[in-house]
Amino acid sequence: MTALPASQTISSEIKKLKKRKNALILAHYYQDPDIQDVADMVGDSLQMAQFAATSTADILVVAGVFFMAETAKILNPSRKVLLPDLMAGCSLADSCPPDKFSAFIEQHPGSPVVTYINCSAEIKAMSDVVCTSSNAVTIIKSIKTEKPIIFAPDINLGKYLIQQTGRDLLLWNGSCMVHENFSIDKILELHRTNPKARFIAHPESPPHILKVASYIGSTKGMIDFVRQNQCDEFIVATEAGILHQMHKEVPDKTLIPAPGYEDNTCACSECPYMKMNTMEKLYQSLLLEQPTVHVDEAVRLKAAQALARMLTLS
Ligand code: 13P
Ligand code: SF4
Fold it and tell me: From the CA of 20, how far away is ligand 2's center (Å)?
């Protein structure tokens, strides 16, 4: 392993490497603040995909999880795509193995297949169209057939989509370990002690959490809501990394992370996969130009079609 620069200079070393190598860093809102601050763009899954699709940089470093880096590679295969830690996976993506999902599709002939972007390239390749939390309602409404629609892998987002669109969805039983962990009792208690606060939630949260939310949306949607809403206090039910950008956007508002079952701090609402990326790994990754992300070409071509449909509809 190459010797690391002192922690106070690591950010400037990363900036120098980016310039020298014509590299761009794409960071998700759930990344640590120092990673978000050194990135060239910070966004939700849709913004990251849109940015990756049109980028002309030689190297794209994805400060996020594996499916995000895979998506960047699928959409822009001639770029070198780096992920600082290849073990940065996702509980939702892991819940949907390709062989089992293929069997599920076969049980429902003729049903269109819509998948949430939090899945592997193989699953995307079996899909008619991909969606993210910010465009899922639009994508489901765009499907013309009367047949039930297969939706995977997030059962909570799927239930929310049924409620929003009135469509018949056949749901895969996957979920996000972070959003499953919010405690309704502790959230209601927190609301009692902060009665003026608006409670906002990501649609990966279970129905009993969404039922009490005054706004439901993607990470970008939640940030926009907090900026535009008149209220000065918000209880925020999604991964705690989002609070960094929110604080930047609304420095004078009070942002309270929603508590999980285990404790009353935001520690349990941190995604262990997202948090595998560190400034040190980001530096090493740029320096050595690895680990790189590869997608089998036959899989990539099919997955690219499903992603292209999503981008057209977004
Ligand atoms: P969005 O940022 O697209 O809302 O997705 C949230 C998420 O869980 C990403 O892993
Ligand atoms: Fe996956 Fe949830 Fe982590 Fe997002 S927050 S990467 S959905 S486990």
Answer: 32
Pair 224, 246 in one domain: yes
Q: Is residue 32 part of a domain?
A: yes
Q: Which residues pair with 254 in a beta bridge?
A: 233
User: Residue 266: pLDDT band by 50, 70, 90 thresholds?
Assistant: very low
Ligand 2 neighbours, Cβ below 6 Å, are 65, 90-92, 118, 176-178, 204, 239, 271, 273-274
Verify whether ligand 1 is closer than 6 Å to residue 132 (CB atom).
yes
Domain that holds residue 289: 10-89+274-294
CA distances from 139 to 58, 149, 151, 293, 311 (A): 31, 11, 11, 28, 10
d(CA 6, CA 95): 39
Q: Is the CB of 91 under 6 A from ligand 1?
A: no
Q: How far is residue 32's CA from residue 271's CA, in Å, rounded to a whole number?
A: 11
Q: What is the pLDDT of residue 7?
A: 65
The residue nearest atom 7 of ligand 2, judged by CA position, is: 176
